[in-house]
Amino acid sequence: MLDAFSPELPAALLYPITAALAVMLWFVLRRVEGNAARFVIAAMWLRYVMPLYHDVTFRPIIGDFSLIALVTTGLFAIGCLIIPPRRWMLKALGPVYVLLAVTTLSGLLNAQFAGLVNTLIKWGFFLVILLGVYEAVRRLGPDKISAFLLWALLPPLVFQAVSFVLGIAKHSEGDGSLSFIGGYNHESAFSIVMITGICVAAFATRLNAWVRNALVVAFLLGLYLANYRTAILAVAPIAVAYFTAQSASWFRSRERVIVGGVMLGFAALGVAAVGFLMRERFADFATIVQGAPIFQSPQDFTASERALFSSRLYLWSQYLDAFSHGGLAHQFFGFGPDAWRNAFPLYAHNTFISALYETGVLGAGALLYLWGAMAMATLRVEDNLARMKLMAAHATFILVNMATMGQWMLEGLILYAFVCGMTLVQARARIPVDAYEIRPQPAPMPARRYAHARVRPRI
Predict the structure, then answer these.
(1) What are phi and psi of 169, to 5 degrees?
(2) Is the pTM of this model over 0.85?
(3) pLDDT tens digits for 389-402?
(4) Which whole-number Å values give the CA distances from 52 to 61, 120, 163, in the listed order?
């Protein structure tokens, strides 16, 4: 069964399986300690299940707001009630607040109020997930909360398996190849969920090694079946880092460098093998290497050049051309959040180029500041294996955003929130005590009953 847009799974399977997964989630939540951990697990599970009903959840019901947008707003409000107020004072969140300030200024100057509200809700959701992960890791530890979060990632795997068995697929854009995405509306969002599963499983070290490896392989297989080139390329850093760290953890510290080097070699062979098996999907790279132009004016693209990388190069040139022809104010502050909807049929498929168009040089700089600050925070992580996996996870997220807009999607924001939350805890990010809290003073000594009484010193 093929369709230009991925259809929903048969109701006879969709509803009973969803109900069974919801019951499983209920029992999992009863075992979890802490409201923050329960909130993150439930919010992720709900956000991964709702797109399966995209004919209902993506349809506007109140103005331009869909059911999924309203639920996201509600989750943000619930998260604000659960997260302790002092957590919002983390110094490491400064780059996020800078980006939000620039985005707000751009939206107000361009009167893009609807786009501004939509963007702020997304980033509010990102913050409550990040701080929820931060709070949960501080209470349960990175290994335990990661093991629990895998239950939230179970529904996409289950429904993809159902769609594969039933042959329910979607034609990929551009070349028409098949994508099995379990009833999701687009393979990009589903692929980011699979990458999230790999990142979460990489830190679930309390699980049996065989179980954890099987889960990582299942998510990798799910990514392969989703057949989204951008995600398949971007997953390489975290996949290589995971298997390298997993192999190195079985040896002594002084032996890990040698083992890590050997595993990197095997990983390189694995990446080469995947590239060979999918050489038809990556044929555009050979065209670029042979001298096809990458950046040029939109009118200079030939018909064959427009088709490269599913028309991404041509699309980027349109955004960059519109940015370069904008006034000085637009080049500094952009055209406003979500302003692409007024000028282009498709989003930019590149988060940096989109930020340059929507929020100008200031917004693009703020975006790089956020990515750079969070990535640099991994250098403060003391555990070598954890630091390697966190650095790889940041690299994977940034690569995803170079050929699609993972940060624009809530699935991508969940991924980044998990990675940043893990990073800030293990990098020992602190709250400025003197800026919010009052240090507790020692209680006064009780008055002596008799002023003249003497206390003999203990020897």
Answers:
(1) -130, 175
(2) yes
(3) 999 999 999 999 99
(4) 18, 25, 12
